[in-house]
Amino acid sequence: MRFTVLSHAGLLVEHQGVQLLSDPWLIGSTYWRSWWNYPPVARELVASLKPNYIYLTHIHWDHFQSASLKLFPLDTPIIVPKGHFERMKRDLHGVGFKKVIELNHAESINLAPDFRLTSYAFDLLSDSALVLESPKVTLLNLNDCKIMGGPLRHLLRRHKRPDFVFASHSSANSRQCFEIIDAPETEVDDVQKYIERFYQFVTASGARYAVPFASNQCYLHKETFRFNESGRTPLMVNEYWEKHKITTPELKVMVSGDAWSEDEGFKFTGVDWFTDRERLLLEYQKEKSAVLEDFYKKEAAARVTMRHMTHFFPEFTNALPYLVRRKFKGHPIIYVLYAGENRSVYKVDLYEKSVSEMRFDELNDEKFPLQIHLSSYVMRHALGVNILAHLGIGKRVRYRVTRAEKKYADLYKTLLDLHEYEILPVKNFFRPRSIINWLQRWREVILFAQLAGEKIWTGSFNLDRHLVPAPREESSGAAGRVEQSAGAT
Fold first, then answer.
1. What does CATH list as the number for 302-422?
2. Residues of CATH 3.60.15.10 domain(s) within the chain?
3. 66-80 burial, b for 16+ CB within 10 Å, e for fewer?
4. Tens place of pLDDT for every residue, the chain, 489 residues?
5. Do residues 142 and 114 touch, judged by C-beta distance below 8 A?
6. What residues does CATH 3.30.1050.10 cover in the chain?
7. Which whole-number Å values give the CA distances from 408 to 311, 396, 414, 418, 447, in the listed order?
8. CA–CA separation, 92 vs 42, rounded Å?
9. Sign of the Cα pseudo-torsion (170, 390, 75, 38, in order)
10. Among 199, 209, 254, 212, residue whose Cα is nearest residue 482
11. Which of 163, 340, 394, 484 has the smallest set of CB atoms within 10 Å of its CB?
12. What are the beta bridge partners of residue 246?
């Protein structure tokens, strides 16, 4: 077996002449020119790819990018997890791919006589992990999948000890997009926690080698470039390993073009992308300036009308149970949309199931403490493709809220997710596909019930209870000595 790191979350695995690509975002940007591969993928590497199969872990655009998928023949078989919804299959058909293979939870497919892929669905919003096996090598690609507890134990029992585990190590959520109006000093995200979580997940897997993965991207759009400061790099993960003297699993920093094979071991490009990252990012942004400037012009010309708003929100509000809508009584959501010097404001009242336009001079923080600011271009496109829940991933949004209103903003984002992943309306839970899916994933249902109980009892989700304890400094005894556990739960 041989594997090559292609990009942020892209991996090529080869065995017996068969190529499998997973999550091949290879060219261009995603999330409205916000995310770019870092380092960029060499054209020669892209041109060398002749996949027999492609696996997509989930629907997020940095894993499911149509421009990259279109580089390959439309008769290439695409393997996806069979979750409770069919959107991945529908969207692939929309791109032009007809050979879409949906794998049930824990189902395997033989890519060659001695080359097997097994898919494990996890997460309410249908993420997945995959195991790739040859007679001598086992790869566990966790990617963004935070599988833990009983579901992880089930996975590990069914396969040999992983030789490699690949997992994300930085932020891909909306936490840093919050601005707390009445407490601007509030820490909205603990960025170092992502590295600690990386340690906990890869150690729980029992793998020999751990590769920081699915977080090698950067922000080049002028609105989001600042988020590069909070990104966690593989170099930072390596520093964490050294600080805590972690030896198991052994960390391997691998970027685009780096590879490993049974016959030759590791092969690295030898380019340092992280020591002088700030300068390299500025050069990267300058290199892409023509593309970015063209996009800025498109954004400045965009407009969102009431027709665009009513294309999405009536269906969304009708999908919400009354008791959920009632929580938003007196808590309207204000969208502040900008395009160049133009501003438009829309009030979305979930309780009243209404959308109305406001004048910009009516806007004030005291009267409307739950505001969502974003580009008109981004809003229009997101409404058109029913993907509003992706806004926070790309960091192309700002939630301007008070401390009291933040819980409503968080609930609203969750409801958008549940709707776009076809969990809402509630009747979707009772479709045969959904029932069968959750019966197959009964261990996960138990885990979710445990986490919900812990949330009710303690006020927070206690993920540590279901993972390996993170390294910590002893509070007494020899200074600097690290207490570390490598046992899996």
1. 3.30.1050.10
2. 2-291
3. eebbeebeeebbbbb
4. 999 999 999 999 999 999 999 999 999 999 999 999 999 999 999 999 999 999 999 999 999 999 999 999 999 999 999 988 899 999 999 999 999 999 999 999 999 999 999 999 999 888 999 999 999 999 999 999 999 999 999 999 999 999 999 999 998 889 999 999 999 888 888 888 999 999 999 999 999 999 999 999 999 999 999 999 999 999 999 999 999 999 999 999 999 999 999 999 999 999 999 999 999 999 999 999 999 999 999 999 999 999 999 999 999 999 999 999 999 999 999 999 999 999 999 999 999 999 999 999 999 999 999 999 999 999 999 999 988 988 999 999 999 999 999 999 999 999 999 999 999 999 998 999 999 999 999 999 999 999 989 888 887 777 888 889 998 765 433 333 333 333 333
5. no
6. 302-422
7. 23, 20, 10, 15, 25
8. 26
9. negative
10. 199
11. 340
12. none
CB 274 within 8 A of CB 234: yes
Residues, the chain, total?
489
For the segment(s) 2-291, the CATH number from 1.10.10.10, 3.20.20.240, 3.60.15.10, 3.40.1790.10 is 3.60.15.10
- 19 contacts 6 by C-beta, under 8 angstroms: no
Distances (CA, A) of 4 to 12, 36, 378, 418, 477: 5, 19, 34, 35, 44
Identity of the amino acid at 481:
R
User: Checking DSSP bridges between strand 35-37 and strand 29-30, what pairing results, if any?
Assistant: antiparallel
Q: What is the 3-state secondary structure (H, E, C) of the chain?
A: CEEEECCCCCEEEEECCEEEEECCCCCCEECCCCEEECCCCCHHHHHCCCCCEEECCCCCCCCCCHHHHCCCCCCCCEEEECCCCCHHHHHHHHHCCCCEEEECCCEEEEEECCEEEEEEEECCCCEEEEEEECCCCEEEEEECCCCCHHHHHHHHHCCCCCCEEEECCCCCCCHHHEEECCCCCCCCCCCCHHHHHHHHHHHHCCCCEEEECCCCEEECCCCCHHHHHHCCCHHHHHHHHHHCCCCCCEECCCCCCCEEECCCEEECCCCCCCCCHHHHHHHHHHHCHHHHHHHHHHHHHCCCCHHHHHHHHHHHHHCCCHHHHHCCCCCCEEEEEEECCEEEEEEEECCCCEEEEECHHHCCCCCCCEEEEEEHHHHHHHHHHCCHHHHHHHCCCEEEECHHHHHHHHHHHHHHHHHHCCCCCHHHHHCHHHHHHHHHCHHHHHHHHHHHHHHHHHCCCCHHHHCCCCCEECCCCCCCCEECCCCCC
pTM greater than 0.90 = yes
